[in-house]
Amino acid sequence: MEEFVQSSGEDGIVVFSLGSMVKNLTEEKANLIASALAQIPQKVLWRYKGKKPATLGANTRLYDWIPQNDLLGHPKAKGFITHGGTNGIYEAIYHGVPMVGVPMFADQPDNIAHMKAKGAAVEVNINTMTSADLLNALRTVINEPSYKENAVRLSRIHHDQPVKPLDRAVFWIEFVMRHKGAKHLRPAAHDLTWFQYHSLDCKRLSTAFKQEID
């Protein structure tokens, strides 16, 4: 994989993943995407388990799994095609990589909307996009400097913390150990029954249930 990445030269690489829940696409959609990828000078690492698209270009390789965070952190990373999952978004922000968002469900459309608003992403609709749409989106985030600049600006903000995240995690783990489980921080909810936790009035529920039966 590293040899493939290094073979990209000055053009660099594009990382492509639609997350762990989307393992394959329709043959038509996969060919549409592969056709667009084949037209860019960058090398593409695509996490995809479906049938190999007939339009797959020599610049694109398919993988069952990719070390996504490591690839986004590689100095040759030029763009990230993502479904907009929270982990991928934060990894791209951390490494300052501009995105092409292809959201599908849950929090993904909202995540991509935030990245668009910050000028770090372009969105394409997975249901209606053409090869030209995806190709234009890729060319935009890779070739227009503002997208990289905005991604790097977000990265600087993300990195600017008083304590490194790993040091903070180590501190709290050792804090709990030093204080024998830190019971003073334990939420009282752990000591409640399920009906107390959900604030259920059992007496009234019982009366209401009896009235329904009667």
Automatic annotation (TrEMBL):
Q: Where in or outside the cell?
A: Membrane
- Indicate where this protein is primarily found: membrane
Q: Does the keyword Membrane apply?
A: yes
Give this protein's Gene Ontology molecular function annotations.
glucuronosyltransferase activity
Keywords of the record, alphabetical order, are:
Glycosyltransferase, Membrane, Transferase, Transmembrane, Transmembrane helix
Protein EC: 2.4.1.17
What is the enzyme's class at the highest EC level?
transferase
Topology relative to the membrane: Single-pass membrane protein
- What would be one Gene Ontology cellular-component term for the protein? membrane
Its recorded reaction(s) are: glucuronate acceptor + UDP-alpha-D-glucuronate = acceptor beta-D-glucuronoside + UDP + H(+)
Q: Which InterPro entries match?
A: UDP-glycosyltransferase, UDP_glucos_trans, UDP_glycos_trans_CS
What's this protein's family per the entry?
Belongs to the UDP-glycosyltransferase family.
Name of the protein in question: UDP-glucuronosyltransferase
